[in-house]
Amino acid sequence: MIIGAAKGGTTDLHYQLTGLPVNNDPKRPDPPIKAHLKEARFMNWPLVSTDMLLNASMYAKYLGKLTHPCAETKGVLALRQCVSVHPPQQLTIDASPMYWYSPHTALQLRSISLDTKVILMLRHPLEGIVSLYNHRVIEDGVWKRIPLDALVDGWLDFLASHPAVPATLERLRGCPHTRCQEEGWRDLVALGLTDTLELRMFSSALYRYGLASWRRHYFRPNRVLIIDSHAYFRDRPGVMKTVVRFMYGRDMTRVEADFAAMAPAQNVKKHNGSSTAPQSSSSKKPNWMLSDEHRRLLEDWLQVHVLDELYNMLAELRDDGAWIVGFDQAPWPWALDGDAGGSSSARRGSRSSRRIALPTYDFYDGSEP
Prior knowledge:
Protein name: Sulfotransferase
Radius of gyration: 21 Å
Strand content: 5-15%
Mean pLDDT: 83
Shape: globular
CATH architecture of the largest domain: 3-Layer(aba) Sandwich
Keywords: Glycoprotein, Transferase
Order of helices and strands: EHHEHHEHEHHHHHHHEHHHHEHH
Number of helices: 18
Region (Disordered): 266-287
GO molecular function: sulfotransferase activity
Structural class: alpha/beta
Largest sheet: 4 strands, parallel
Family: Belongs to the sulfotransferase 1 family.
CATH class of the largest domain: Alpha Beta
CATH topology of the largest domain: Rossmann fold
Helix content: 40-55%
């Protein structure tokens, strides 16, 4: 399962793993990935009953959407058994980035599959917000006349007019463990923080809070790979070496290596700079460009609720057996500070004093995949 930040490279990674040259390679050591879907968006649907989990028929419908061979199996226990024994014959990928911030997806997945490998892609939150704004304007046709500054104002107005939201955010900021974070994030979702495109553009940057459910209920040693999106696009072939090792427990084939080196980036604009970004008029700054004031407001908010403890979260996940790729170069603030073992949170009074150097994408501990 591929999850993570919107505009963080999940589409490109899905393409790398399922492209025809890779899947049709006659020398491929593993079964071709014939069952895969980008944006299945099934496991994060709002539940319409008091049940915490989907029922067997809904799981079967989900597997049918993925063209999974277990889709006709009856009963949740039988589904789980079928899913657990099928990987040697057929591999399946669901690439739905938004799953990461659903309060229920980790529990839903756990009900039918205990061994699914999860690849999580994270992008610097401020860059992700600007990129997602451009994507919505150019690809989806929304916000064409609304500058990004105005959306930031709308976000701040929402926080000011819903006092329960900043109160819950402050509670989350002080959470000592993932259970507290999971409960707080569930409260924020119930308060409507992910209800609209405008709100999700900002709330989906809250990586530490939204991932708490995954950390508590699903992530397992050697079955989680966390990729720095910036490292992925700087050196796709290098990162794909680790992805293949994580997925299959082997080195890349020649076809996989060539495909990673030549394939166009699926989530990157074709031109450098701002030439493809939406413009307002020649006499005004581009709509996508944040004013200094709005950039500062957004940076301060993201620093408090995302970046101050993100480094330590990654270190904790590494200690728990996750594979970590990148996060050692700009734009991450601890890399900008030139302190490979520290983070900006130390100077801002962070509760944690841990200093653990994150491994690069050459990290592999020799365990069986």
